[in-house]
Amino acid sequence: MNNKKNISILIIYTGGTIGMIHDAITGSLVPIDFRHISDHVPELKKFGYNLQSVSFDPVKDSSNIDPGIWIKMADIVEENYNNFDGFVVLHGTDTMAYTASALSFMLENLRKPVILTGSQLPIGLLRTDGREHLITAIEIAAAVENGFASVPEVCIYFDNKLTRGNRTTKMSAEHFDAFFSPNYPPLAEVGLHLKYFRNLINYPSEENNLVVHKSFDNNVAILKLFPGINRKLVQAVINTQGLRGLIIETFGSGNAPTYQWFLDDLKHFIDMGGIILNVTQCHGGSVEMGLYETSRQMLAAGVLSGKDITTEASVTKLMHLLGRYSSREEVVKSLNSSLAGEIS
Ligand code: ASP
User: Fold this and answer.
1) Domains along the chain?
2) What local confidence, expressed as pLDDT, does residue 177 receive?
3) Measured from the CB, is residue 93 less than 6 Å from ligand 1?
């Protein structure tokens, strides 16, 4: 494993800005042919690793990525798991945090790095951030210590930070520093050296085999609260045909209006077998149900605390659990516990 030539990394190009160049004739952005990636990033040849790539055809803007595509990505990882030491997934930045979260729940007992990255500027532009992202993501995916992967997790690498995928959120549509992990420190920082924070990284304790969960149920909704929200809207969401799980994005540490109709509607949904998860709309911190009267009553109605989970991780976790278990109790139990380091 320590011989560079023995290290194999699979690059999975799904789409997004990182893989774009300006077409010589039309001037518009078009995806590059990933078989010729080293023409655009000649530095890749210096690695000495066995680098291989697969490209989605057609490539996807990340706004078009959905559970079917997550399954396709997990299939590629599963099929190539024994032949590669690590995986780099090139992905549009817009929904990268959702995909990273979904993959973290799908790939149980992961022992190899799956590093997602993308860029704000296309790789074909002079000032691109994509070149460094690709090179460093490969280096992280290839990093081993004592024969084991340094970061056997699904992560996002962006702008010198490696963060746990299911803890990360996109915070800027413009800055190079586009992602952050509000409630969990970075797993590695990149400066002169690549510094891994081993006490923060999850290392699987047993030699369990990779298990890939491939079912999702998208009968879920996210309801963002705002002052003045009216009952018709709440009822329209709750009465959505087939809805099984609802995330409510609440204020502060998990607070919501104490209007009787609001509590009655939530309780009715739960009594009918629905699951409601309370997630804060703040950009950091945790839900603490019962701290204020405005959340105590929801707790009494059976609303679950999302603790310090991100919205991206909460919705993908809910879809994953509803697809995985038919029993409500199993879903509730797993929502209350950490599956892949997504809650503290
Ligand atoms: N729209 C692009 C995407 O998410 C933006 C990006 O790659 O940064 O696919």
Assistant:
1) 4-212 (3.40.50.1170), 220-335 (3.40.50.40)
2) 94
3) yes
